[in-house]
Every structure is written in structure tokens, then in C-alpha cells.
Amino acid sequence: MLAVHVHLPSGKSCRCILSAESSVLELKLEVQRSFRCRCVRLAFQGQQLELPCTLRELGVSDGDGVDAVVQPARLASTAGAFAVYVAGGAALTWGRPGYGGDSSKVQDQLTRLRRIQGTSEAFAAILDDGSVVTWGHPDYGGDSSQVRDQLVGVRQIQAADNAFAAILGDGSVVTWGFPQRGGDSRQVQHQLVRVQQIQATNASFAAILEDGSVVTWGDRDYGGDSSQVRDQLVRVQQIQSSWGAFAAILDDGSVVTWGVPECGGDSRRVQEPAGACAADSSDECRFCGHLGRRLCCGLGQNERWRRLQRGSTAAGAGPADPSDRGSVCCNPGQQLSGHVGRS
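The line above is the sequence of Ubiquitin-like domain-containing protein; the predicted C-alpha cells follow.
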């Protein structure tokens, strides 16, 4: 039997008594019981311990010390399944098998996870080495075999309803899944260079390039066609999406929208003419103008907004609260992200 001393960064420690033939998983479960926590990463002599190995195979001897780090669990979901995982660790899935709830065929590959994303019926996991593992419904992105050789050095993955888009380390993009709904980006592939960020509606993708321009593809009706607003999409800072539309914030604080009108793709009703908002020296007020005026100023209640900015109160009102001031006019992206679409 081996006595293994496990240490947390806080200085807490425990001693685990196991056989040399015990697996890393058995050690991990013992550590979790001792520290009363669920998600732990273990390292021995600077190397992360892999679950399939035994303590003997890893060279762990009686009296050796093992380092442990407690990490929060993360969740990803499809329309019918969940995946729980820890960054740098493995994943556990459950739910409808065809929706990604059964990962048994790729379970041995799901180690050293960095991030998991889900379409409506499939999952895609980025590993620490930048490779990607997929499972679930093949037509919804669960089969990435045709692009497997391209999925190297993946930095980020975004998911639509049944397609994935991956940003590689060099800023190029690889897509797979249902072709007409974002899984085929060949028509715009030459434009997808130095991509910084990708967002997705139900059936299309929008990518912000390094120069602030935007490239879209997928279902034309769901935001995949931005040709009508292309000239306005310059110096874009952030994009958010709803189910069927996109909204982009420009560097002057104005907002450009496109996609299904009923999903937010038509913002003309709340757009202000240029110069309609009074100038203000506050940096925060620079977002006030065009659509920003209505979002920040409470549908045109300018005087109340100015008083809140100064920390004063309206007649009969209580003291201004700093958190209230922040909610009246905050960073444009923060303000929009809770109303326009998912992050």
C-alpha cells in the first residue's frame, strides 16, 4: 500500500492510502472525499495525472506528494443533453443519446478539456492541444471527420442550431454541420482572415475581423446576408445575436442590426437622427446618440438621466445609488448583451 500526500495551494493537505495498482481516478475520488469537493485536478512532479493510468505506471511511490487544484465545474447543453466538465479535465454527459447525451464512443478522447459548445443536437470540445472532439447527431455538427485535419490550434468555437464555426490560432475559420445553416463557409472563406470574434443566430454566423469589418454566412433570412448594411459595418466593436438577428456596436456607440425583423433585425423604430442627442462632456455619454440615447436615457428622459450621472436625485426621489447609475448608462456591450442576444 502507498501513502500519498496531497496538497492544495492553500496549504491544506490530506493523506490517501491506496494500492500501487490504484488508478488516478481512484486517487481523485479519495481526494474529493477528503477535501469535500467535486472537481479536482491532480499533478505529480509538474505533470497532470491522466485518469487511465495507475499510480505504479506514473512512478508514484510511498510517501510521495501530489499537488491538487480545486476547479469549478462547467456546463454545456444541447436541446436534449448536458455535458459537465472541468477545464483541463474530463467530461460527463447525459440526456438523449442522439442529442449528445452518449459520449461513450469518444470518452477516451475527452481529456484535458478547455471548452465545450453545443448545437441543438451535438457537442464540440476543444482540448488543451487545440484539437477538437465532436459527438452527437452527425447532421448537427456531431461528425467533424471531413474537417478533422483542419481543426488544429483551435482558439474558439461558436455554435448555431446545427453547425459549428471554429476560429484557429492564425485567425482563419473552419466550419462544419448543416451546409445551408452555417456549416459551409466556402463562399466567404477568402474573407475569413484575422477573425477576432464569431457570433451565431439559429442558422447563420457573423465574424468580426481585425479591421472591424464583418463577414456573414449561413441562412440569408437569419442574418447570413448582411449586404444591405455592409457599408455601415465598419469599426465594429462587438456583435450580439438573437434567435434570428444580429446587432453590432460600432466604435462611435451606434448600433447596426440585420436579420429577421421580428427578432430584432430591424431597429429603425428606436434609431435617432444623427445629432439628436445633446452633447455631454462625460465619456459615458458618448454612447448616448442614435439607438444609444433610448437605451441609456430611458426613452428620452434626458434630465433625469443627467441627474443620475451627477449623482443627484429628482424631486421626491431617494439618494442615487452607484449601481443604479451604472444601469442607466454603462458600457455599450454590457447594456446590450442582456437584451439583444446570447453571449
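Note on the example: The two ends are 50 Å apart (CA to CA). The first strand starts at residue 2 and ends at 7.
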